[in-house]
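Internal QA ticket QA-208
Title: Verify multi-chain structure generation after dependency bump
Assignee: T.L.

Test input:
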Amino acid sequence: VEIPLVEETPQRWRIEPRGAMRVPGIVFASRALLPALEGDLSLQQVANVATLPGIVEASYAMPDIHWGYGFPIGGVAATDVERGGVVSPGGVGFDISCGVRLLVSGLDVDAVRPAFAQLMDHLDRGIPRGLGPGGVWHLSGEDELREVLAGGARYAVARGHGTERDLAHCEDGGALDDARPDEVSARALARGSRQVGSLGAGNHFLEVQVVDAIFDEARAEAFGLHPGLVCVMIHSGSRGLGHQICTDAVQVMLGRMAHYGIEVPDRQLACAPVRSPEGASYLGAMSAAANYGRANRQLLTEATRRAFHDALGDGDLELLYDVSHNLAKLEWHEVGGERRLLCVHRKGATRALPPRHPDLPVALRETGQPVLIPGSMGTASYVLSGVEGGGAFHSTCHGAGRVMSRHAARKRIGGGALAKQLEAEGIVVRSHSPRALAEEAPFSYKDVDEVVVTCERAGLARRVARLRPLGVVKA
Amino acid sequence: LEASSRRTGYRLLPHVADVIVEAWAPDRPGCLDAAVKGLVATFADPGRAAPDGRVEFAFEAASDEEVLVRLLDEVIFLVDAHGLVPLTVTLVEADGAVRGWFATVPVDVVEETGAVPKGISRSGLEFGYDAVARRWHCRVIVDV
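Actual output:
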């Protein structure tokens, strides 16, 4: 079915409500970024999300929108908690609290160059990834796993795996307080027990990067970024545990929707009222998974510091910020002139708090929240910041956005050829699986430069700095 | 990306960030076995590896689609939690109760050939008897 789009501005398109849609769809995109592939159902998915009970304002899509299942990737939807609003596990996604953190070294690129191959070898050995279980943190048992679920990065730091400063620069101080480990199934616990401190596969990565452009001098200085500075970007999530929690909750909610009189156009949009036992159970388990995700990235941070120390004699890497781009959060927002408690789903979208927001750490109060946007492998990544009046409940994009299937990417280039091409561009690659590498070829993604410029023009965030990769660690 | 015959087989179809597995066979257990092989083919090439393990499972499922999702979830669980890759499945169904076993190999004897699957989507799920083609057929979107 063709979904008609009305151009409101060159960066903002509207899908008028029709059928069961309760609100319009709003797509933030330049014309070039609009979903164009034959068979891409992402605009239909924007419209489907608009049917969720309690949804307010609009079903939003960010410039990196692409075809998901249930929700589009790059979707933002908020429901009114006290007016029957629902929570949908599909609106968070399988990889709960999948996210990104950026570590800032005190080293310029020239200082790391002589020992760069050794650094990459240390990272290659020190960062578990790919098939099967195996993380850097060997938990003592299920009780300790529950501590991770309750305490997230805070528990990791309390056990010596990081610093208090790390926590101040992590969303929610490193842990969500409303986590309910008792709502996490035995299967999810089994999948999570041996994966804390592992990267995973697919689009997850660790990259050593260098700052190569500054767009906002004042904010870049406040973030400690200058051209030539070496940084590390880590993209990972809550691993098998988060996926199992999503699977479990979708199954439960599919069986209970009739009871609540809810119908959805796509089974992956299964949902339950936030104020229901099923909704509360999911949100408690989801927060536990989010804490697991933050602990996971914290342990990967520690492993990265160790590699820097062993290879370069300097493991002093400071956390700029840690964002989640797959999460639902209960947040207060003004809607129709009234402050309301909303359940804000961000699926492949990043929260972007404006300057002076009370949830920001003191050091970042005046700048707005750092937003970390990983580009595709071998291209640029960005640091953005939240802006006053940012739309879509203070949300922005989460990455470049995929446009080509894994299958098509593999047909177009072999893993060996891709690795050679990256090396020719001066990017060192450490990967276990050439075919998995080929699936992530840069041409499979939208142009990240266009995505972030569109976010800026649409008033969703501002550009602060661009980073380019020096080395990539992937499955 | 295809390992099929007209009678029994599977194929992997592109989905932007993920992958679609289609499988078919003259009978229902054969179709489920082909789906398991298709799911494994998204991330691993077992080559000539011979199964050296057996893992049993049992679950309840209220619909055909539910049987398919639960079975494939079992595969993902085995890989993720136990580091085992199923090569075949044998199963018996009776009144919504499904029991069976996988023949497995350890992950380190297979070649990793793609992103590891993490979840089975309920979007666009299909499983049933195709009266025209006279075979069982299924289709799932796999999250990787």
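Spot checks passed. The mean pLDDT of chain B is 92.
Status: verified.
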